[in-house]
Amino acid sequence: xxxxxxxxxxxxxxxxxxxxxxxxxxxxxxxxxxxxxxxxxxxxxxxxxxxxxxxxxxxxxxxxxxxxxxxxxxxxxxxxxxxxxxxxxxxxxxxxxxxxxxxxxxxxxxxxxxxxxxxxxxxxxxxxxxxxxxxxxxxxxxxxxxxxxxxxxxxxxxxxxxxxxxxxxxxxxxxxxxxxxxxxxxxxxxxxxxxxxxxxxxxxx
Length: 205
Known about the structure:
Helix content: 55-70%
Structural class: mainly alpha
Number of strands: 0
Low-confidence stretches: 14-18
Mean pLDDT: 88
Shape: globular
Strand content: under 5%
């Protein structure tokens, strides 16, 4: 497929593999614990956010998010976390930093140099993944939870960040290797008419 060749995605990078729920559950738990350690130490503008002391809520939301990923994707992201830790980098802090590119562009310019680099190839991968997010959001925008959760970056405000902006920051914190695995999985989901975002939001209800 020309789409895959554009990003030089090899068959072994496609993120689709046989796995048991037990294997994935173990991986998800390991990833969530690493993320929680980073999340609870993120330095905010102003005072500490109350959600940084609500581990149960954090684990619930992250489990719902990760359950849609294959074992290969989870393994790749776990490797991202491990490599970042050895360099003293918090991927969770980077996620929130890149979210500010949408929510607070002027402040983002001041902190951009502190964040992990977003190469042109990585930007292209993120753009492609956001295409799926935006299409999935359009498919579910009339469903009942729309009134409780902002969907689009244009709706961001001081009190709430949209689903679109959250995914943008999330993807910017991943390695190109992990993004490629998610890309092929999301492409296959899209072609099969599967809305991964809808499944994620249902799990959060």
